[in-house]
Amino acid sequence: MSMRAVLEVIALDTEDAVAAQAGGADRLELVTDMAADGLTPSASTVAAIRAAVDIPLRVMVRLADGFAAGGAGGVDRLAGAVGELRAAGAEEFVLGFLDADGAADLVAVERVVDALDGCRWTFHRAIDRAADRDALRKQLDGLPGLDTYLTAGAAGGVDDGLPTLLAEAARGGEPGYAPRIMVGGGLRLDHVPALRSAGIDAFHIGGAARPVGWAGPVSTDAVAQWRAVLNGEPAHTLAV
């Protein structure tokens, strides 16, 4: 386990990105349209954020609500979007597509991964909607660039998924379980001790970085509180 836990913060724009970096975020997930749970941002937004901060960015590849790729036409659009994002400076990505049976849509995933051309990527919370998590991990095992699963352990969030997260952390290194677990989705500070004790060292926050909700920007102070707790400082000593 790394000494410093990774803290990833969702950013919608340059203001969010600058605030998150100032608060101690290690990485940003760039998205737009949180009403649809996060879609692909514009290339211009990616370029502006890349120019404003110097921490790593992972850019969402998802053009519609839900976890379907949208058939052959949708896959073509996704691959095209990757090209535009890479031209704008994106080097890391987030994606995840399921078929009608809840298995990984390998046709879509492999086509997009081909477009990434070796870039590192996260398989996002589509895993929490999969019919069989273990089978999905094994379907994706060995795909180039896959280094992280963003997961709450269950569709309902970390409260429901905590036992699954702890069990999966214990399987690190088995086929399908080499990628890092990054926990996100209803994540709270009080979840952190059990997750850290299990060896999990990556955490993802969105709404938790925005005290006034998604209508407001990322709060540097909120991110700093998470950074301090992940560094091992007691939460009650921190300003909110």
UniProtKB/TrEMBL annotation:
Query: A Pfam family matched by this chain, by name?
Result: CutC
The record's comment on protein family reads:
Belongs to the CutC family.
Q: What is this protein called?
A: Copper homeostasis protein cutC homolog
Q: Which organism is it from?
A: Streptomyces similanensis
Q: What is the lineage of its organism?
A: Bacteria, Bacillati, Actinomycetota, Actinomycetes, Kitasatosporales
